[in-house]
Amino acid sequence: MRSSSDMLVRFRLSLLCVPVIAILTQTDTGSLSGRVTDASGAAVPNAVVKIRNLATTWQRESTSDNEGRYQVNLLPPGAYEVSAEVTGFKRFVDREVRVQVAQAAQLNIPLELGSASESVEVTGTASLLNTESVAQGGVVTQEKIASLPLNGRQFIDLALLVPGTNAGGRSVQQNSVRLNQTGGFSSSGGRTNNNLFLLDGAINTDPDYNALSYVPIVDAIAEFQVQTSQFSAQYGRASGSQINVVSRSGSNEFHGTGWEFLRNQAMDARPFNSVTSSLPKNQRNQFGGTVGGPIRPNKVFFFAGFEALRLRQAGVGITSVIVPTALERDGNFSASPAKAYDPNNAAAGVRPPFPGDSIPSNRMNPITRAALRAMPLPNVGTNGYVNGSAVLKQDVNNGSLRTDWIATKKINVFARYSIADESSVIPDVVPERERLGFVRPQNLALGVNQVIRANLVNEVRLGFNRLFFQDGLPEPLFDVNSQKQSIPRFRPSGYPVMGGAGAFTGTTGGGTVLTRNNTYQVYDNLSWLKGRSSWKFGGEILRINYVRSEAASPLGDFQFLQGYTSRTAANDGTGNALATMLLALPNQGNRQVTPTRMDGQQYAGAFYARPIFVSSRISQSTSDCDMRSRPRRPTHAIKISSIDYSKVPSPTAIFAAGPLATYKPTLFTCGLGGYPEGCAYTDKNNWSPRIGLVWSPIAKTVIRAGGGIFYALTDFNGLLQLARGLPTNISQNLNAASSFTPSFQGFDIFGASAEVGSVALSQAGLDLRQRTSYSPQVSFSVSGNSPGTWWWKRRTWARLASSSSRTSNPITRSRGQGRWTRAVLMPALSSIRRWSFPITSSRCPTRSRSRR
Fold this sequence. Notes:
Layout: E1 10-16, E2 30-37, E3 48-53, E4 59-63, E5 69-75, E6 78-85, E7 91-99, E8 104-106, E9 109-110, E10 119-122, E11 136-140, H1 142-147, E12 165-166, H2 173-177, E13 186-187, E14 196-199, E15 202-203, E16 205-206, E17 211-212, E18 221-229, E19 242-247, E20 255-263, E21 282-296, E22 300-314, E23 320-322, H3 366-373, E24 384-386, E25 391-406, E26 411-426, E27 435-453, E28 456-472, E29 478-480, E30 483-485, E31 489-492, E32 498-499, E33 513-530, E34 533-550, E35 557-560, H4 577-582, E36 588-592, E37 596-614, E38 622-624, E39 636-637, E40 641-644, H5 651-657, E41 666-669, E42 690-696, E43 701-711, H6 716-719, E44 731-735, E45 760-761, E46 774-784, H7 790-796, E47 802-807, E48 819-822, E49 848-851
Parallel strand pairs: 2-8, 2-9, 7-10, 14-19, 31-35
Antiparallel strand pairs: 1-42, 2-5, 3-4, 3-6, 6-7, 11-18, 12-13, 14-15, 16-17, 18-19, 20-21, 20-49, 21-22, 22-25, 23-24, 25-26, 26-27, 27-28, 28-33, 29-30, 31-32, 33-34, 34-37, 35-36, 36-44, 37-38, 37-39, 40-41, 42-43, 43-46, 44-45, 46-47, 47-48
């Protein structure tokens, strides 16, 4: 029901006229506003509007002004009953008003003449259209979360329903280290790692790769919002999307759910390349439940959820690899297709074969021989092997508990703690080299909402996020001359990795990594209504601790080619990499003397002030300004180094000169010699102008357009390269000068560990005056929810997702160098309509059992 005055053209303009810091306060609360009018459309002042939460009975009040306007800010998301009453009019009641996460809802209240003892009840009058903000995106409600199929029960997959999002590369650590986890997605053509995840307003982003940290149980999510562009300045720290998840809270009634999802091999077919006669094991059980209700009716409520995953899967990625035969393990290559020739007895560039095609035992290195003997014997053909009986294992236990407390009529408090344990065993292509992983994400949020006065509301939020994980192949021991010991890592050409684990590589067969990242957060938002204007103030303090340690390879990592045991220097098809390995003739070697460890720390703080001025004329307008306090400081760590390229020409100048030359940049330890402790100077040029337009030319139709510059943080993992070199580490690389004549014999080829020596070193450098990564964005959309014009809106709803990002590589050598990347303009068709989503019990494409 709308009055005639509500059909007038509505116009809103949002202009950001001052700089915005890359890190600003976050919030998951929404707002409700509208006009109170009589039957003729005239404003009704002094009407008391009450907004009562249907689940907890917590209530807020507002009084309409002389123009009939009312507004209630900082409302927790949920279902509300809205009532309005004033002398001379019937009481208005709407029991189906939904306030969504971080969105502005509108409800215009038409009053009818009559007694206050009479009431008029309406439903569904709140507008789903956002006419207050230029932000682009959408909300995934609890009905959709419960109804839509989710293979793997990852809520982030539903974020792809929002226009402007796509799966992207998803090349983040969580996707490879944490099984069945998705760490991010691409928004408006941006990087996968440019998003910020919030859980109940608390940061839920791991700084290592700026990816999702704790994965909430889908049945414990009330709803979540994805803002893809043009979001308010109170949201920061990301140039891609803001993913704001709200957990479910308890109510005055007890509710519970239970489920189990089952997959097994009963209906599977036997893989064509399986080495066993039976079906590979394939058992997946995902089960759990939720329960919520009152602890003390109308005062204290709780909601708890638990979910577990048990996965046992054999034959994952069945791959046939070549392994040494029983003869080759003892140096006998008489039955091998590629024979070995003696590199010590060449005559006129031609090498003779070994006697009987066998390497004498006194010339075989005992270390490489031990590595060969640890490999499995062939089980496919002459020298093939398939690790078909290995079983991938994954166990996950995920739990969350939330409590809500209505302390007084004006104070509402909530607290939530979530934790998950994830363990995995990932087989390699050969046995006894399984990758072991353990991950424990934790997230804590504590919030207090206080109504100081009817027009003054404050919100305080504390957040804590931790991600601990370890992954990789623990260093194995080998029998060398009847003694157990660690040995180097060997990579003979054409064969799987053998020997030790070596340094962490991020894949199977590599060493271990341990990470413990903590994020501490506190922020405050204050909302003040003053006449036609609305003021919002906010401040945030953020502390990030980044600790990552990757295993070293002090014994070295060596590569072997067939050239050192070939007959001639020509590529004649002779030679054997295994023979080269047994003779200990590496073609290439590298090592890291000590573990790569970084103990990084970053502090960030911000303050913003946002005045909003409203005009009540035919063309209604809203303007706002946002102000930052100070830029963030670069991450600093203990005893890491970088390179000063200020005395070296830029890459552009070097390449323009034609011939390459030798330059001598300055190697420095961060924090010493007058250099900044963060290895780079603070970027004080983080200006972020934004402009937006929201226009409603006709009822139930809104046009939005906006543009601005949005800043993002650099992944901390890229800064880890600074810890791989001097002064705490030595990363050495040696390459043979010839692929036919050996340059190295044995594995002690680097010299003393404490000396740099005359070998090639790897050293990373950070641009001293690097710019903070930023992304200029523009957007345009048309939306509406009128049933009579639904077809027209579906054809005209197009989101212009143009995103240009000037990215600065943290490991670069030039000042101000970077590259511009421009995304393709991609329209996205959608419409806003009311739908009823039935709650179903199965989200699994195969067998499932569920009860709700």
